[in-house]
Specification:
Layout (H helix, E strand, L loop, with lengths): L2 H11 L10 H10 L7 E6 L4 H14 L4 E4 L11 E3 L2 E2 L2 H19 L9 H15 L4 E5 L16 E4 L7 H4 L3 H8 L9 E3 L4 H14 L3 E3 L5 E6 L5 E6 L4 E6 L5 H20 L5 H10 L7 E3 L4 E5 L4 H14 L5 E5 L7 H8 L5 E4 L10 H8 L6 E3 L3 H10 L4 E5 L2 H13 L5 H5 L1
Parallel strand pairs: 1-5, 1-6, 2-5, 6-7, 7-8, 13-17, 14-15, 14-17, 15-16
Antiparallel strand pairs: 2-3, 3-4, 9-10, 10-11, 12-13
Length: 440
Amino acid sequence: MTYLEMLEYIYKERPSGKITLGLERIIELCELLGDPQHAFRSVHVTGTNGKGSVTKLLSNLMIEHGFQTGGYYSPHLSTFKERILVNERFVPDEIYLQCFEEVQRLVRKMDQRGETHKPSFFEFTTAMAFCIFQRMKVEAGAIEVGLGGRFDATNVLKSDVAVIVTVDYDHMHILGDVLEKIAFEKAGIIKDSVPTVCGETKAGPVEVIKKVCEEKRGELHLLNRDFIYENTKMKLNENKFDFRGLKDFDGLELTLNGEHQFLNASVALQAFLLFADRMGFEVKEEAVRRALKKTAHPGRFEVIGEKPRYIFDGAHNTPAAASLRRTIKTYLQGERLAGLVGILDDKDKVGVLSQIAPLFERLMITRPVSHRAVNPQETYEIARRYNENVSFEPDPIKALETLKGEGWPTIIITGSLYLVGYVRDYILDGKLEPEWAIAG
């Protein structure tokens, strides 16, 4: 079997659109594998927005302190390989295939017992990740939740620290339509006697998280109470801040762009300090500085090229779009901007477009490469409410080439990570990963 044949099976036989709540399948699958998720120590990260950046930062902090480190992320931008990293590097194909075959053999037996016993796409890939981490002798893991927390496949972990970055509106059809319900789902990753770090400050969600921590007898570390960031200085790709928490640091540098990244970095750093305390190792200042400065997160206000300059940002929900709006005004005030935007059908298109569409002198609506984007015409009709100079081209590459041909100095690609990854591939390599034909 080849890597692409493996992906064909994962995408077609374990479709990602099917979500059946419950941990029964992933618990059984991990038990059959010998519970590989218990072979390493971990920090478990959830949040409406920011969890990917926090997980990246944690992974680099672990690496810089000498740990063989597993990072688990979703979704990916260009290649499935981005989901499961060891020391922030791709896993060799042969190890992927070995673990895939081991998981597939067990899953086929589970499938025979009926529909409710069939592991989903995410359950399958999560089991693969834990299997890979065990095989590659991972010592520490930074593990990102896929969706929610309480019933997420990653919640079979016995983590050392739980992280809830933010609580806001997204996936309401699954997590609930009020913030307290969403907070309860995310607080489901909190384990008995395990500390929790929370970057959310809204009273309702914080009260829910406090209550769960009390029930679980675990410390809660809150932003602006137990740790803070201050003295922020923002310059594109060169951002600085001071941190006050379990340990204090002045003049920390971040390549990650946007004011929200100070929050993400502070949450990650407080969580790492707690992880170090539980593991019994010394946190080294120079290692912290290296980790934060080198952390990159493709597709999150990522700048590529000069003429034109491309900026990629996966602002896929209303809070992320509001953050993108603030970030554009911070770094690009007064500049002429064109936007290439595609949004999945299950997202709040009005919420996203009302935030970002007015920022662009020229706006092009397109279709993200995903089975969850079948009605891009609707996106275009909504966009017309917020921008007069808007066009529709369903093919993302044709849409991009049109904007390039018009000579815009800065083009921002946003709205969905599926769009961001697809266009980013094309711009960087002049071609597309063969995986897009399978995933799309």
